[in-house]
């Protein structure tokens, strides 16, 4: 960022529109720091994990709908009432934890061991990227963000094509078959990760 320059990043997120930070009053005298952000993310993640563990361990899949509807309502409140975010973010973490725990219980019953693998991979990626970002090994520039969006979009297209193939009676892409342990399927999974 240039000194004295204007920080303007484009976003399709409705919570980050051009008018998001207009007329916003500070709730504290401090400024936003990287450490404070990391700490708040860690607290939200811990709340999510505790709630998802509860739902997963009780195998109560009815919490999925409660979590999804509550999460949607909480997200909408956060978008339109930003001053309530110190309260809505932990509530959102609770609701999403309930939903994810129930979804995980459902998939664990279908595919033994898949939940542990997914959590391990996700936590590994999250912690690694957070470490790289906090130590400033990765510098988030506009080009870096565009590269991430392009890569994510490309992977999303592959997943949509696979979904469409399944919906219209096909067997889907062989590289994405869960029972396929070929070098191509493993390589595709590594690229996605």
Give the SSE map.
Blueprint: H1 34-58, H2 63-80, H3 85-110, H4 114-134, H5 142-167, H6 183-192
Helix pairs in contact: 1-3, 2-3
Word description of this protein:
Helices cover about 65% and strands about 0% of the residues. With about 190 residues, the protein is an all-alpha fold. Helix 1 crosses helix 3 (about 85-110) and helix 2 packs antiparallel against helix 3 (about 85-110). The longest helix has 26 residues, at about 85-110. The two termini are about 30 Å apart.
In short:
The chain has 193 residues and is mainly α. It is built from six helices and no strands.
Descriptive terms for the model:
0% strand; 193 residues; mainly alpha; globular
Work out the number of β strands. 0
- Percent strand equals under 5%
Distance between the termini: 29 Å
Radius of gyration: 20 Å
Structural class: mainly alpha
Poorly predicted spans: 1-6
Give the SSE order as H and E letters: HHHHHH
Shape: globular
Number of alpha- plus pi-helical segments: 6
Mean pLDDT: 83
- Sheet of most strands: none
Helix proportion: 55-70%
